[in-house]
Amino acid sequence: MSEHNETGIADLRREYIRGGLRRKDLTKEPIELFELWLKQACEAKLLDPTAMCIATVDEHGQPHQRIVLLKHFDARSLVFYTNLGSRKAKHLTQNNRISLHFPWYQLERQVSFLGKAERLSPTEVVKYFHSRPRDSQIAAWVSQQSSRISTRGILEGKFLELKQKFQSGEVPLPSFWGGFKVEFDSVEFWQGGAYRLHDRFLYQREGEEWHIDRLAP
């Protein structure tokens, strides 16, 4: 192990001083607090405030993580879109339990959701697909996500070919492109605190109500 790894990384630390999270700050429904924190992340001009790390598990029990963008949320669910032939989509077909994590570390905050993912209907998918920029619609046709390719040029050539093909008229929705709605039953809010005494609150659904616990950091 290099000297940098032994001494440099181990010594990297800072204090969390932006403020705490108290029970009086909590909302009855977790999505209300999430909406407030997301609004504040946008107002702070964080890069990609809707970016979330989603974790799925393969048939061998191996977790996989990747970043996707949140596209819609309501009191019960979060929505994202993807290629249905992707690794994440295949995992969710076998095991629909999923974790979603928002790492707003510039604000010394994290939010984690646990729940189950369900495929969106074609009607819901096509409505969003045609709201995307035209080049993004065409790009959805180009990639067989997670498949092995030899060079980037293959993707670029296919994109130009399809751009010519779809130069007039509406870009059709690919049959292999869709979305997932994650119905969550657990939400954790984390706010950094001084001396590593971070504030953590866990919302867990109990029927139609939410039970809230403070967790030790």
TrEMBL record:
<keyword id="KW-0664">Pyridoxine biosynthesis</keyword>
<feature type="binding site">
    <location>
        <begin position="196"/>
        <end position="198"/>
    </location>
    <ligand>
        <name>substrate</name>
    </ligand>
</feature>
<feature type="binding site">
    <location>
        <begin position="66"/>
        <end position="71"/>
    </location>
    <ligand>
        <name>FMN</name>
    </ligand>
</feature>
<comment type="similarity">
    <text>Belongs to the pyridoxamine 5'-phosphate oxidase family.</text>
</comment>
<feature type="binding site">
    <location>
        <position position="128"/>
    </location>
    <ligand>
        <name>substrate</name>
    </ligand>
</feature>
<dbReference type="InterPro" id="IPR019740">
    <property type="entry name" value="Pyridox_Oxase_CS"/>
</dbReference>
<dbReference type="GO" id="GO:0004733">
    <property type="term" value="F:pyridoxamine phosphate oxidase activity"/>
</dbReference>
<comment type="pathway">
    <text>Cofactor metabolism; pyridoxal 5'-phosphate salvage; pyridoxal 5'-phosphate from pyridoxine 5'-phosphate: step 1/1.</text>
</comment>
<comment type="pathway">
    <text>Cofactor metabolism; pyridoxal 5'-phosphate salvage; pyridoxal 5'-phosphate from pyridoxamine 5'-phosphate: step 1/1.</text>
</comment>
<feature type="binding site">
    <location>
        <position position="88"/>
    </location>
    <ligand>
        <name>FMN</name>
    </ligand>
</feature>
<dbReference type="Pfam" id="PF01243">
    <property type="entry name" value="PNPOx_N"/>
</dbReference>
<feature type="binding site">
    <location>
        <position position="87"/>
    </location>
    <ligand>
        <name>FMN</name>
    </ligand>
</feature>
<dbReference type="Pfam" id="PF10590">
    <property type="entry name" value="PNP_phzG_C"/>
</dbReference>
<feature type="binding site">
    <location>
        <position position="190"/>
    </location>
    <ligand>
        <name>FMN</name>
    </ligand>
</feature>
<comment type="subunit">
    <text>Homodimer.</text>
</comment>
<feature type="binding site">
    <location>
        <position position="136"/>
    </location>
    <ligand>
        <name>substrate</name>
    </ligand>
</feature>
<feature type="binding site">
    <location>
        <position position="71"/>
    </location>
    <ligand>
        <name>substrate</name>
    </ligand>
</feature>
<comment type="function">
    <text>Catalyzes the oxidation of either pyridoxine 5'-phosphate (PNP) or pyridoxamine 5'-phosphate (PMP) into pyridoxal 5'-phosphate (PLP).</text>
</comment>
<feature type="binding site">
    <location>
        <begin position="81"/>
        <end position="82"/>
    </location>
    <ligand>
        <name>FMN</name>
    </ligand>
</feature>
<dbReference type="InterPro" id="IPR012349">
    <property type="entry name" value="Split_barrel_FMN-bd"/>
</dbReference>
<feature type="domain" description="Pyridoxamine 5'-phosphate oxidase N-terminal">
    <location>
        <begin position="38"/>
        <end position="164"/>
    </location>
</feature>
<protein>
    <recommendedName>
        <fullName>Pyridoxine/pyridoxamine 5'-phosphate oxidase</fullName>
        <ecNumber>1.4.3.5</ecNumber>
    </recommendedName>
</protein>
<keyword id="KW-0285">Flavoprotein</keyword>
<feature type="binding site">
    <location>
        <position position="132"/>
    </location>
    <ligand>
        <name>substrate</name>
    </ligand>
</feature>
<feature type="binding site">
    <location>
        <position position="200"/>
    </location>
    <ligand>
        <name>FMN</name>
    </ligand>
</feature>
<feature type="binding site">
    <location>
        <position position="110"/>
    </location>
    <ligand>
        <name>FMN</name>
    </ligand>
</feature>
<dbReference type="InterPro" id="IPR000659">
    <property type="entry name" value="Pyridox_Oxase"/>
</dbReference>
<dbReference type="InterPro" id="IPR019576">
    <property type="entry name" value="Pyridoxamine_oxidase_dimer_C"/>
</dbReference>
<keyword id="KW-0288">FMN</keyword>
<feature type="domain" description="Pyridoxine 5'-phosphate oxidase dimerisation C-terminal">
    <location>
        <begin position="177"/>
        <end position="217"/>
    </location>
</feature>
<feature type="binding site">
    <location>
        <begin position="145"/>
        <end position="146"/>
    </location>
    <ligand>
        <name>FMN</name>
    </ligand>
</feature>
<keyword id="KW-0560">Oxidoreductase</keyword>
<dbReference type="InterPro" id="IPR011576">
    <property type="entry name" value="Pyridox_Oxase_N"/>
</dbReference>
